[in-house]
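Exercise 7b. Backbone tokens:
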């Protein structure tokens, strides 16, 4: 009994302590909120909530959810019949993945968020990116036995940066969607130099052999749908090299999902010539004429 009474007393004391601490935390948060109001992750304007773009930056984002190449997910004209279409580049040289969608096109706001995560250590931006990628992930993963695999960093780069931005995004995606992730399946054998400004062949040469499977990868990946997660899909050379390595695990399917995709101007959603609208115009003309 004495023990029970003691427990109750301790319990009450704990709760009182918690209330007191909670109050202090709330007050602290109010002070911090006052001093550091939530800001737009792209332009820094004050916004209503954390992880929220201001209206101008939000409306500047180009969401890539229109018709796309079945293999590399580059935007395609809308009226071409059938959904399993491939772009010219994929017909000439099929990539090692089935689908590589991105949440948004790589524009000013999308770039700023990615750079602030990667170099500015704004790790909270991983959650914002994942929130806007989650819908694409759910569509991509379907009912299959999907597993998220963040594009790994070489251990030296991980050591100097302190974190892998793609792994942070994969963690948030796993938390939001429930699709599991495995950070130990794919290894980075070499730290690759920047691919910027290099031609296609040179890029492929730089990333060749950059990735390897973990010794027990086959046991964990065979028959599954592996989804590579990256922040920016630029030339796709890194994703192709990583996907090629994953294919050797016996996975049933390999695809990729990134935050932002570099899309040539002519293929941007607003600039694509819409064959569908032309078609309906012609039908209308026929009907009225
Ligand atoms: Zn903004
Ligand atoms: Zn393609």
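Sequence design result:
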């Amino acid at each position: 009994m004495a023990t029970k009474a003691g427990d109750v007393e301790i319990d009450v004391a704990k709760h009182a302590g918690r209330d007191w601490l909670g109050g202090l935390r709330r007050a602290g948060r109010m002070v911090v909120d006052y001093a550091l109001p939530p800001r737009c992750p792209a332009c820094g304007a004050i916004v209503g909530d954390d992880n929220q773009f201001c209206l101008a930056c939000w409306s500047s984002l180009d969401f890539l959810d229109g018709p796309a190449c079945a293999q590399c997910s580059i935007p395609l004209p809308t009226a071409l019949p059938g959904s399993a279409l491939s772009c010219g580049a994929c017909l000439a040289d099929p990539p090692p993945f089935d689908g590589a969608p991105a949440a948004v096109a790589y524009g000013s706001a999308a770039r700023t968020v990615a750079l602030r995560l990667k170099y500015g250590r704004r790790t909270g931006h991983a959650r914002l990116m994942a929130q806007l990628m989650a819908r694409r992930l759910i569509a991509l993963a379907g009912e299959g036995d999907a597993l998220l695999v963040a594009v790994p960093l070489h251990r030296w780069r991980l050591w100097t940066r302190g974190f892998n931005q793609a792994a942070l995004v994969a963690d948030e995606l796993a938390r939001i969607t429930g699709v599991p992730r495995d950070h130990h399946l794919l290894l980075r054998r070499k730290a690759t130099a920047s691919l910027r400004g290099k031609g296609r062949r040179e890029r492929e040469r730089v990333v060749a052999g950059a990735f390897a499977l973990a010794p027990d990868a086959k046991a964990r990946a065979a028959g599954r749908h592996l989804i590579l997660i990256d922040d920016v899909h630029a030339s796709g050379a890194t994703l192709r090299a990583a996907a090629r390595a994953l294919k050797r695990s016996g996975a049933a399917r390999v695809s990729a999902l990134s935050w932002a995709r570099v899309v040539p101007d002519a293929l941007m959603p607003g600039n694509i010539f819409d064959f569908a609208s032309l078609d309906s115009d012609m039908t209308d003309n026929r009907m009225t004429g």
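Instructor comment: The chain has one domain: 55-267. The domain at 55-267 is CATH 3.40.50.2020 (Rossmann fold).
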